[in-house]
Amino acid sequence: MPEERSSSAPSSEPAATAPRDERIQQTLSPAAICILLVEDDHVLRAVSADTLGDLGYRAIRASNGTQALAALDGEPDIRILMTDVGLPGMDGRQLAAEARRRRPDIGILFVTGYDDMVRNAGPLRAEGFECLAKPYGYEDLARILQRLVGAKRS
Prior knowledge:
Elements: E1 2-3, H1 20-28, E2 34-38, H2 42-54, E3 58-62, H3 65-74, E4 78-84, H4 92-102, E5 107-112, H5 115-119, H6 122-126, E6 129-133, E7 136-137, H7 138-150
Parallel strand pairs: 1-7, 2-3, 2-4, 4-5, 5-6
């Protein structure tokens, strides 16, 4: 679930005059980017979709792997798969593997409550996947999505 984080640490960057949300959106230019959001918990799915919308992305929601694959097949504009790992039936890793098989260029973001997966995400990142721990911060999500949007995949 997204959480607000604040930092009182000094920054070496010049102070920005635009509000935080506006600065992030200006950096990302996400208006044309569609994200397939897969989360089995309806509350987390709604909150996450709202957060993606706040960042300027278009979110397509699915509650399981079967729905997600149907959306992926029917929506050519999807550029990023943002999936929970602990899904019933087809889990997030299986879903990501099948999504990559169908669309080798899709960005994959695993969102998980499993701390071990995030701590040991090196091999996943080497394969071009990203990992984000729940609860996550707005800026963390924005930064990872920006990285996925800019990544080149085969």
